[in-house]
Design goal:
Layout (H helix, E strand, L loop, with lengths): L9 H4 L3 E2 L5 E5 L2 H4 L12 H6 L17 H15 L3 E5 L2 H4 L8 H16 L3 E7 L5 H5 L7 H17 L5 E6 L1 H11 L9 H25 L4 E7 L3 E3 L5 H24 L4 H6 L13 H5 L5 E5 L4 E3 L38 H13 L5 E5 L17 H19 L4 E7 L18 E4 L4 E4 L1 H12 L1 E2 L5
Parallel strand pairs: 2-3, 2-11, 3-4, 4-5, 5-6, 6-8, 7-9, 8-10, 10-11
Antiparallel strand pairs: 1-14, 12-13
Helix pairs in contact: 4-6, 8-10, 9-10, 14-15, 15-16
The structure holds beta-D-fucopyranose.
Length: 473
């Protein structure tokens, strides 16, 4: 049964807010969050397999098993995408399948991704591959992980193996997903794998991740000269809670530096911002930067992937959650006072207008780079009603508001080319395990039954009409 809405509906033919022709509508996932099958076909442990076994690290002691069992149900999942009318699918490739233990290539691991890509192409869904969505082989972490510069070169080797096989058929490549999380949540706060709480290590990791991005971009160019290449960053507008308070203003500057500009500027401008270099001097940033690094890191890109979930409203006055270990290296006492706004199930405030602000400001500061929203979405405690339907009205409201915000940015001349909802499927939400559901499609993890939520049907209507209908329609 097709769940596509009736395309003869005149309201769909003339959306109230049309998106540009060719706008890319998609959904995103990541390997460790959906695949399961963590010991199959030669895959070896990643830092997340190890981290999940640490007592208290992940809610309910959840692990990458069963995920959404996507490794075995890939064909069914591509059929779901087809039913939804998705034009593109953003997924990540698991390094520990492709070069287990960071060592020799494993053709059996690559076979899975070739099958996935070929199935997508057969269904006219554009494959958008991310090389690194956080699943570093554990053996490389044992050698220092991202704190060790050598890991960037191992990443380039891994990229080479992937591109040799798929470079001829994947048109869009992303090197890294959210290097900020890998570096600062993984090595400073310890909330993500590998769970280290060493601020200096996080700063080294950030630079080596950027270097890996640059080296990986060169590999993409060599093997897929006609493909587009980019990186995905998690970006946030940052505001001082009290714009009249110099302490809040300075904290906002620091948080913006760590979260946004520390990644944007090296990639798009070829230098670290002066204030970030000064703020991070006590943590040794400049000591890791070798003469050619910034040239490598700033190789021209075809697109910037923007993951947007909310804005940040920061105060210099600490609260009970402030202090080390903190992801905010050099600004550990920052707090995020509540504005009393509605929140999603992961406690993030809903701030859709921040998306317009972010896109417009990226366009003003970095005017040449085309933008894609590579993630945006919300967790809600979804349950099927007595009719078997998941009535996720909050998610529809979230999506509607954020698509309107994206549209407003396009009207202000932002070169925004696509939108990927996070996530296609309910999945393993990192430290929150299976407790938080972001999917358009509900997954019953015991039976692995998939049920498209009402939001999936709503989104497929948007895709079919290439835009939004008037409020209330
Ligand atoms: C992003 C991650 C993604 C998912 C969403 C909710 O930071 O890239 O894997 O967990 O958050």
């Amino acid at each position: 049964m097709s769940i596509l809405p009736d395309e003869t509906d005149p309201a769909l033919a003339r959306p109230e807010l049309p998106f540009p022709p060719g706008f890319v509508w998609g959904a995103a996932t990541a390997a460790f969050q959906i695949e399961g099958a963590t010991t199959v076909d030669g895959r070896t442990p990643s830092i997340w397999d190890t981290f999940c076994r640490l007592p208290g690290a992940v809610t309910n002691g959840d692990t990458g098993e069963p995920g959404a069992d996507h490794y075995r149900r890939m064909a069914e999942d591509v059929r779901l995408m087809t039913d939804l009318g998705l034009r593109a699918y953003r997924f990540s490739i698991a390094w520990p399948r492709v070069r287990p233990d960071g060592g020799a290539p494993n053709p059996a691991g690559m076979d899975f991704y070739q099958r996935l890509v070929d199935t997508l192409l057969r269904h006219d869904i554009t494959p958008c591959a991310t090389l690194y969505h956080w699943d570093l082989p554990q053996v490389l972490e044992d050698r220092g992980g991202w704190v060790n510069r050598d890991t960037a070169y191992r990443f380039a080797e891994y990229a080479e193996t992937v591109l040799q096989r798929l470079g001829d058929r994947v048109p869009h490549w992303t090197t890294l997903n959210e290097p900020w999380c890998s570096a600062f949540l993984g090595y400073a706060r310890g909330r993500h794998a590998p769970g280290r709480t060493e601020p200096e290590a996080a700063v080294a990791a950030a630079h080596h991740l950027l270097l890996a991005h640059g080296l990986g971009t060169a590999v993409i160019r060599r093997h897929a000269p006609h493909a587009s290449a980019g990186v995905t960053l998690n970006l946030f507008p940052v505001h001082a809670a009290d714009p009249g308070d110099p302490g809040d203003l300075d904290t906002a500057r620091k948080v913006d530096g760590l979260q946004n500009r520390m990644f944007l500027a090296p990639v798009l401008l070829g230098s670290y911002p002066d204030d970030v270099l000064t703020d991070l001097a006590p943590f040794g940033l400049a000591e890791h930067v070798r003469p050619d690094d910034l040239g490598t890191i700033s190789a021209p890109l075809d697109m910037l992937g923007v993951n947007y979930y909310r804005d940040l409203h920061v105060s210099s006055r600490p609260d009970e959650r402030s202090g080390p270990p903190s992801e905010w290296v050099g600004a550990e006492h920052v707090s995020f006072p509540s504005r009393g706004l509605p929140r999603t199930d992961v406690d993030w405030e809903v701030t859709s207008e921040g998306l317009t602000e972010l896109l417009v400001s990226l366009h003003e500061k970095y005017p040449r780079i085309p933008l894609y929203i590579t993630e945006n979405g919300a967790a809600y405690p979804d349950r099927a009603g007595p009719d078997g339907i998941v009535h996720d009205v909050d998610r529809i409201g979230f999506l509607d508001a954020h698509l309107r915000a994206a549209h407003a940015a396009i009207e202000r001349d932002v070169d925004l080319r696509g939108y990927f909802y996070w996530s296609l499927l309910d999945n393993f939400e990192w430290a929150e395990g299976y407790a938080k559901r972001f999917g358009l499609v509900h997954v019953d993890f015991a039976s692995q039954r998939r049920t498209p939520k009402q939001s999936a049907l709503w989104y497929s209507g948007v895709i079919a009409g290439n835009g939004l209908r008037a409020v209330g329609e």
